[in-house]
Amino acid sequence: MSTIAFIGLGNMGRPMVAYLLKAGHQLRLYARRPEVFQHEAKPLLEAGAQVFDTPAEAAKDADFIITNVMSTADVAEVLCQGEHAVIQQAKAGAICIDHSTIDPTGTREIAATLAKQGIGFVDAPVSGGVKAATEGSLVMMLGGAATDIEKVMPIIQCYAKTITHIGDVGHGQVAKLCNQIAQVINIQGIAESMRFAASNGANLQKVFQAISGGMAGSRMLDLMGPKMVSRDFKAGIEARLHAKDFFLVKEAINKAHLDLPALQTVALQLEKLMDSGWGMDDTSSLLRVLEA
Ligand code: NAD
């Protein structure tokens, strides 16, 4: 069994920690908001996890250090920056595993900083949302050295079902952002078809039923179609997370002078969605942006 530091006990992190504890690993936790241990994360302590005051203390003596925080800046802060960062106390030979969705270039910079101290790094973003995290059936895309991937496999298999090693460090994040591009442009397409149906006075439920059996059928249509038909905008997938990822890709393609016109358009729609205060609601709210 391994000693594992885990940082980021949000909606995705907590179920992952629960699976690691169930598998018998020693868990060392750090939370930026310690009050979480009085509430949502209390069962993790009852199951044997220990709490530490800083990322550095949690990382001391750990074989693996797992992050599931929010942005590129958050991962850099927790792992590399300042006196309380993981790099200050992690042992040489430890491996960091990052499940956050962040920028591939930032990922490579973080990995290079850690490598100077002999600390390994695997980017391991996930797809499937809170439902798959809770069921232990996440889809995971890995970037890193083959020797590190081999070592982290028994750990991530505690909560991921479909695991693909894409390539070098950063390529896990590239694959995750590809997932987001294909996914959210599809949601925008579904919202536009529902908007067109409504503006022509057609029955939305019947339109959804008809097209889901044809070539427009997709897992995303099966998920989003019924939500848009019944005007259910409660998250499933919080739109703020898709917005964060789209703004990341937009910045990257602008730097690379890459022309992805559908992505640019959907990024603008997500901006309007965020400005309307619907960030904590589902991305099906792209329909409400079209109606506004
Ligand atoms: P969340 O907001 O529920 O949790 C994030 C946690 O990270 C919080 O507990 C927060 O306090 C902590 N955190 C953030 N910045 C920190 C910092 N600088 N130092 C210490 N702790 C910090 O978010 P989530 O839904 O768990 O998502 C986490 C990551 O996983 C994000 O990058 C997100 O894009 C990605 N993701 C989320 C989903 C999903 O459906 N929720 C699916 C796939 C990927």
Structure description:
The chain has helices at residues 13-22, 42-46, 55-59, 72-79, 104-115, 129-135, 146-156, 171-199, 204-212, 219-229, 239-255, 261-275, 286-291; strands at 3-7, 26-30, 50-51, 64-67, 95-98, 120-123, 126-127, 138-143, 160-167. Helix 8 packs across helix 10, helix 8 packs across helix 11 and helix 9 runs antiparallel to helix 10 (219-229). The chain folds into two domains: 3-168, Rossmann fold (3-Layer(aba) Sandwich); 175-291, N-(1-d-carboxylethyl)-l-norvaline Dehydrogenase, domain 2. The chain is globular. Helix content is 50%, strand content 14%. A six-stranded parallel β-sheet has the order 3-2-1-4-5-6, with helices on both faces. The chain is built from 13 helices and nine strands. The model has no long low-confidence stretch (mean pLDDT 97). It is α/β, with parallel strands linked by helices and 292 residues long. It binds nicotinamide-adenine-dinucleotide. Residues 7-13, 32-33, 68-70, 74, 77-78, 100-101, 126, 129-130, 237, 241 line the site of nicotinamide-adenine-dinucleotide.
